[in-house]
Amino acid sequence: MVGPYRFYGLLYLDAAASGGVNLARRSDAVDTYLRCAATCHASFVENGEAFALITNDAALVRARLADLGCASIEVIEMAFQALVPKEARFYAAHFKLDVLRAFAAGALGARVGLVDIDCLLLRPPVLSDALSVYDISDQVYPDYGIERVRSDLERVAGLSIAVPRWFGGEFIAGPAGSFRVLMEAVDACLPRYVAGLGDLHHVGDEMVVSAAIHRAVRGGLEIDDIGRTSQIVRWWSGRTHHRQVPFSAAKAYAVLHLPSDKLFLAAQSGRPANTLRLLNDYERMFRRKRWPLRLSYLRDRLLGRRPRRVAEI
Length: 313
Hints:
- The protein has 313 residues and is an alpha/beta fold.
- The chain is built from 11 helices and 12 strands.
- The protein has one domain: Alpha-Beta Complex (Spore Coat Polysaccharide Biosynthesis Protein SpsA, Chain A).
- Helix content is 43%, strand content 14%.
- The protein is globular, with a radius of gyration of 19 Å.
């Protein structure tokens, strides 16, 4: 039985072809992203949730998925509107706003969610009737400082913000009506965001959506931070300036986002869906990766640099 939500991933091909975030340049970016999408799709299907891939070239994506043995994924073509210059940082991330606009119009379902394709669904998510979002402020403050985050959010939102909150772009879900309210706020923020592209601390959908959520909440939008209820966690296998939960805790969440491990996720495509096996394989991979990270942590301390934390199993 398929759950009440329809979940979607996004792959904009021009961006994938030019290399992506947290992806080795030597890899074939398009195939890597498609294989990640296949692994993500398999995890959703295993847990009884609908998942489709949105792209700007459905024919090409379907053909390549078939060549990769991943043809079971539903592919939806969408027209995208360029909101920022093509040379802007994280150009493709802005196309998430087009997907959210389609959500707001009810074009993709009454209850919908956008999920990054380097995520895994480990168990069915438990979502409320509010707009489900993921507050990652504690991951952003150590890198940029709370005052810088506050200043940029206020600039884009066009209002004062007592407690700045930053929301991750890897997951957002809710009823179409909630997205309509959100997109009204996004449209109010966009002119200020585009004007500030050159000196904002962050460029991409997270900046716009975080500012818009602050506006929309003041207008009555109800949000639910699902990170607090163990529905989602962003887990880096590399080093971070923030403290994160050990992997033993992270794998108990419903949605696991692994932004630094796209090559691992891609390698899982085409294998029978088996969450336990996948998590065990991931832990073995990370144990091999962890020791060089520990050495680099110790080197930073010896050189008097600000050391970044090393993830723990």
